[in-house]
């Protein structure tokens, strides 16, 4: 039960955290062509953006939950078990960010998650 609950926290916090980071960074605009001194300023602006801050908090929750899961379960189980997060991220990107996701991208994401879920069906033991 604790593994399933922790995996749910990992999946949701990762997907939502990444979507919120994306929302905040899109508000700042493209920084790829800025001179180095402006990138530092953009970094400071990003840290003050509430969407970015919320994303960082959720990704910290993801990180610490992930560490906890790895303390009792195999990496080869935990990492694949988080694959449904790909679908959740795509769905949240569509609904919250208004991203257009092609049928091919949806199909590819579903195929990845389906394949990875086959791995998850194995035993989740911890090596001695």
What does this structure look like?
With 128 residues, this protein is mainly alpha-helical. The protein has one domain. It is built from six helices and no strands. The longest helix has 27 residues, at 2-28. The protein starts with a helix and ends in an 8-residue tail after the last helix. The mean pLDDT is 87.
What ranges have pLDDT less than 50 throughout 5 or more consecutive residues?
none
Number of helices: 6
Mean pLDDT, to the nearest integer, reads: 87
Q: Please report the total strand number as a whole number.
A: 0
Descriptive key words:
128 residues, mainly alpha
Task: Give the helices and strands, then pairings.
Blueprint: H1 2-28, H2 36-48, H3 50-72, H4 75-81, H5 84-97, H6 103-120
In short:
The chain is built from 6 helices and no strands.
């Amino acid at each position: 039960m604790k593994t399933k609950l922790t995996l749910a926290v990992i999946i949701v916090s990762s997907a939502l955290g990444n979507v919120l980071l994306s929302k905040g960074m899109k508000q700042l605009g493209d920084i790829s062509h800025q001179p180095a001194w402006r990138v530092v300023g953009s970094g400071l602006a990003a840290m003050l953006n509430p969407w970015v801050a919320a994303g960082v908090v959720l990704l910290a929750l993801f990180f610490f939950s992930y560490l906890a899961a790895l303390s009792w379960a195999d990496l080869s189980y935990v990492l694949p078990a988080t694959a449904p997060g790909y679908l959740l991220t795509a769905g949240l990107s569509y609904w919250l960010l208004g991203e257009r996701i092609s049928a091919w991208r949806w199909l590819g994401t579903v195929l990845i998650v389906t394949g990875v879920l086959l791995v998850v069906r194995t035993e989740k033991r911890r090596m001695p």
